[in-house]
Amino acid sequence: MSQSLHGSAPNPGSLPKAVVLMGVAGCGKTTIGKKLAAELGWRFIEGDSLHPPENIARISGGQPLRDADRAGWLAKIGAEIAASLLRGESVIAACSALKRTYRDRLRGFAPALQILYLEIDPEAAFARVQRRKGHFMPASLVDSQFADLMPPDPDENAVALDAKRTVVELVQEAVALLR
């Protein structure tokens, strides 16, 4: 079951919507985001694909990103979100958005940004990242993600979803929240 962090679901309307699926590595941002976007007919932005080579090298080498490393990456994601909205497209972006300042930066591109926070515990996230194939994020960095994590505040237009539930359940719940 979802837990509203702001008191109500997004307002329905005809304007395009922007959603960020946030959370630590292994919470399911990409999997849920792709399926959710397909179900809704929205554009999907894979935030990890927008990392510059320097960030990928740093992460692959077992070094967590610093705020300065994330600045340009967040700007790219924000610009992609804004471009979608300008074209009249609703959009879902997968982005860790671990800190309030990162989410605020993204809101600079889309003030009505809806946050879906995929909440998971460290053990489950570690196990998922460890099983993952073909991704540059090593399981050794999961703890650093939790160290940086600031769950959304009540004023952030956010809903927490239990990321340990099935993909089908999470997509169904998110669709109900966003329609």
TrEMBL record:
User: What EC number(s) does its UniProt record assign?
Assistant: 2.7.1.12
Q: Name one GO molecular function term.
A: ATP binding
Q: Which InterPro entries match?
A: P-loop_NTPase, Shikimate/glucono_kinase, Therm_gnt_kin
Q: State the reactions this protein catalyses.
A: D-gluconate + ATP = 6-phospho-D-gluconate + ADP + H(+)
Q: Could you confirm whether the keyword Kinase appears in this record?
A: yes
Q: Which GO terms describe its biological process?
A: D-gluconate metabolic process
Please give the superkingdom of this protein's source: Bacteria
Gene Ontology cellular-component terms for this entry are: cytoplasm
Q: In which pathway does it act?
A: Carbohydrate acid metabolism
What CDD domains does the record point to? GntK
Sorted UniProt keywords: ATP-binding, Gluconate utilization, Kinase, Nucleotide-binding, Transferase
Q: PANTHER family under this entry?
A: GLUCONOKINASE-RELATED (PTHR43442:SF3)
Concerning its family, UniProt says:
Belongs to the gluconokinase GntK/GntV family.
Task: Indicate what this protein is called per its UniProt record.
Answer: Gluconokinase
- What species was this sequence derived from? Ferirhizobium litorale
List the taxonomic lineage. Bacteria, Pseudomonadati, Pseudomonadota, Alphaproteobacteria, Hyphomicrobiales
